[in-house]
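W.,

You were right to be curious about this one. When I first looked at the sequence I had no strong expectations either way, so I just let the prediction run and decided to look at it fresh. Below is the sequence, 237 residues in total, followed by the output.
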Amino acid sequence: MASSECCSNPPALNPSSGSGHVEKLGGFDSYVTGSPDSKLAVLLVHDAFGYEAPKARMLADKIAAAGFIVVLPDFFNRDPFNGDLASLPVWIKAHAPDKTIEDAKLVIEALKSKGVSAIGAVGFCWGGKGVVELAKHDFIQAAVLCHPSFVTLDDIKAVKVPISVLGAEIDQLTPPEVVQQFEEVLTAKPEIKSQVKIFPKLVHGWTLRYNDEDEAAVKAAEEAHQDLLGWFLEHIK
């Protein structure tokens, strides 16, 4: 992942962004938004820049407006990637994406203890690996991967819940050829509902790190947001 792609257009982190609040869930500081009475939840697993990224929280608010309680935990424990590519390999070693499943399970248990009955999860870049790991079990009822990193064909073969994969045409981390292989694997498993989409002319990270001045990029991000929301509305009931 030591590619400049993974870290382009980094967000200006803002701990007070969003219309929700921060509370402890499963031992993690978590941005929580939406109706606390909802029985339907969505877990957002952030990219390398963590849970204080304003656009991640804005998307959480958008999903919450559709009736979900949405949780965006700080799985980095206040140590998000600082944007220095030279330090990326060391940082990744300290925050192994495949370990996220154990942390996410604690948050999922906390949600269930509050009465939540169905949970979807969406992972962005770094967070895609953790979500695909969750999707191999019955911890969640639906999954979405947005321009994931570290996800393998074997991961996709092991998925057991409805899954949507939103990829970018210009992505060295998960190139469109690999996303097409994901699609072939999923198509061969008709018992697992799936959706695979490659967004043309877009780069890795576009759903959370789009340039506000770029009208086409904003429009594409909004399309992806509607796709993932539609997936959860269909499968989280």
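Here's what jumped out at me. The chain is about 35% helix and 20% strand. And, maybe more interesting for your project: Strands lie at 21-25, 28-33, 40-45, 69-73, 118-124, 142-146, 163-170, 194-203.

Coffee later to discuss?

I.
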